[in-house]
Inverse folding.
């Protein structure tokens, strides 16, 4: 179809929206959705996401980009034009817990997650048949302390071979090394099983139980070198009480984890999430 | 200060945003927030709310409006320019339940509701001292079947005398006549103590109890001639269970009612709510 | 294991709990969970659910039941003793929408729904391979106006042959006849895709869209002869806004539907739901 | 009236409920609500809260307590019998933020918080007239680093003079010294303006903003010597996004703070909260 989105960030100053929308009008585009945000109208950073219909957009993409370049330069814009049909290729990393993977597969089959799931990578063989039964390649790459560097090299090769844009850690129970993360900046989405910044690190449900919290949560965030410290995309919580043991919290938490991860990934795939410093702007 | 908002609705077609934002740029305005929505990019209705800073806006309002008129006409716009300092004057109607009134008064005193509360009108004397203690005039206008028409005439006179823009029914337990409503189209906000369209009409908590629902709610909406059928602005719910009798539901519901009404009123006062047919577009 | 639950309802009067817990103590039982509710301590109905551990309970069930009978009679109790290992056999009815079925299958595989899924019945062939791939028999029984009575006879025969205790309508898009419902009183659980009693009947999302509600919901209830009027077990909602078309509401609603149905079914399977008149008492 | 509640904790073993309920039955009591919880049926701690009606309870309290003592001793119970009419006396500590105080006053006036508000203590004069206008004594006790010990002595004298049972810190912006806390163990309830254990300590909204969380919350807990580490009674959250600055978070947070504090206090006043180690059991 003829839909595309223009993503812009630049220093805020008067006239940006006027320049961009006048340009789109001249190109024959019809805006269908527009979101903007400024960290500070005086000297802050301005973010704009415009979704528009434009006849023949696939054929005209290069021409439009060339015509836009002078405007972009005059406002010192970081920008991208993405066609709606230009679907992102993703890899899903899992360990043994299957609930997040299954939710993503279901939403993908139901047409709610628009992505090409290029491959699934796991440090266990456990979910191989589940994944292969829907026609997605499954790569079992075991990871030990000793083989971690080597395993990550294999993973990176696979991700390049399969031309992957986004990596989803769907309860992948291994910490990625800084060099791995550096290969995919702003491209790795994790689900952490707590309401960050509470319970950073291991065993969050056990620690939630010990602290006696009355709500538990989950957080989807971009992965950076600091464990569980990357930009948060989405969070949600559910109510618990004194009767719930850690196993209950895990069970109840799974529903939150899978829902939060699917929501965050959907927004990412639709280019609705912008990373700014250590936070996200989400145009949902 | 120099802040203003421009509110526009018109038939959707390419070029609207370009024309409006170019105009604002030429006037020296800096956009600080912008929201738009189209019921259908092909032939639907387009809605735009732009908040901007413009030096000396109060003095220049008329000049800017004149300059904008040709653009507005070419796109067949319904439009308004409102200064941020041009605060809406409101009247609050109450009966005996005070929770909604108290919440509005508190939020108003705390600077969260930006409005002039011109007067409070009640069919009971009950809350007179509460209201007068914060320096707001209180008018006790009893209403019976026989005196209703006359009472409404008194109310309308008062509302005109006090130059009231918006009427808030804060659990006012009288049904307004169609002729009253016709005087203030899209200007009367009610809080209904149920999750509409469930339990339209009287005794919603009792009926919620009888039906055995597991959530109760409240709905704030604009008043039209059809009881509880006007455009919904905001709704929320809270969880209940089999142990709760109607009195418990009423008690728990009060928290929802006052929160929902205050939220809806705040959006209305900031011109974030647009009525379109029997629904609202809320740019929050 | 040695766990069992005792479920009691009877006219409320002093001494019930004392009699029951003294009896259990004499039998060597250790209470692990106890819930009770009285519609009115003076002349109302009293409900009790006690979960207890008792050595050798499977072998001693009959003996304990005999010993309890005189107590039960003296208080005019309706009662049941159920062993924890005595898992309920269920049938899932589906049409084409698979989200509820998939969630139930996943929770069942993950050990969160303790049930024997005896069979799946559908008026479409669509989900046959999905269901058979996890080893559950799938029966395709097409239903037309003309064949409905006959189809229901086939269904009832299957349900009896498979010794089914509970029937789950997981978005089964056929209305069951009164004679079908009469065969399984209090045994059929439905998920309705609205926040009942709002939008009873067909096309709830479309009607929610037309009414302009700001929250949509789902309701799980027992099926009675009155469409969507049976005792409500569980409800939940999610926030929507003016941008969401009926297709969006359907998409967002699916998450609520499947979560609410799974929660209601779990409580039912654990004998935590008691039907009283047209309402439920849920001891969760 | 004739209502009372019996609160028990003791080592778990078979026969406790039987013994207690048989005793109550013999005393002519009719149980209206009963809640129990065991940390572990094998060797854990057992908690029981029974609400019952008993004719002439006020006159018979001592007699019933004497009769119960042998049972209590045989099970090594910690226990209390409290009459429903024996209303707790509370002190509210405030600084300048009034939202929590106003909510408590309103709920108290509306009959939703059953307590005697004996006095309000503040380190500012700011809310004096508000409090005195509803007939409650207000004590302005300024606190500086130098005068803190002395100020706390004055506070303790007042609390004793007014025979206060429970102290509510309704956004009181001073840290109580360990010696103050030691005077009222398990009797001081605080509202912390974050979702603990996230953002322990000062400036939680600013830190929530810096971290970019998507939900903010509030936590009501008992005060212990460890700042913000005491047993949590209740928590709740509300959704925020990238547009909200710290001032917005504070504004939105106030609604959560006052609601959570009022809920926690209500449960405490009804003896529904039991402190066990560093957690709470809440029988709501």
């Amino acid at each position: 179809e003829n839909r595309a989105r223009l993503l812009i960030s630049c220093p805020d100053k008067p006239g940006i929206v006027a320049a961009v929308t006048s340009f789109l009008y001249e190109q024959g585009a019809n805006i269908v959705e527009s979101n903007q945000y400024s960290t500070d109208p005086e000297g802050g950073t301005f973010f704009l996401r415009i979704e528009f219909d434009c006849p023949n957009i696939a054929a005209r993409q290069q021409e439009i980009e060339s015509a836009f370049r002078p405007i972009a330069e005059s406002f010192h814009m970081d920008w991208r034009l993405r066609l709606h049909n230009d679907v992102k290729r993703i890899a899903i990393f899992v360990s043994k817990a299957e609930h997040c993977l299954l939710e993503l597969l279901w939403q993908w089959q139901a047409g709610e997650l628009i992505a090409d799931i290029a491959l699934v990578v796991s440090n266990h063989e456990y979910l191989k048949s589940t994944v292969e039964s829907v026609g997605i390649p499954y790569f079992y790459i075991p990871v030990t302390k000793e083989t971690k560097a080597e395993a990550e090299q294999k993973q990176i090769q696979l991700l390049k071979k399969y031309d992957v844009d986004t990596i989803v850690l769907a309860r992948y129970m291994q910490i990625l090394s800084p060099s791995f993360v550096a290969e995919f900046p702003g491209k790795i989405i994790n689900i952490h099983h707590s309401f960050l910044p509470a319970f950073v690190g291991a065993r969050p449900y056990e620690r939630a139980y010990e602290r006696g919290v009355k709500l538990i949560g989950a957080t989807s965030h971009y992965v950076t070198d600091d464990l569980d410290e990357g930009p948060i995309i989405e969070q949600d919580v559910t109510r618990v009480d004194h009767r719930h043991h850690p196993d209950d919290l895990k069970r109840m938490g799974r529903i939150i984890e899978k829902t939060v991860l699917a929501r965050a990934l959907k927004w990412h795939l639709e280019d609705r999430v912008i990373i700014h410093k250590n936070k996200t702007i989400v145009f949902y």
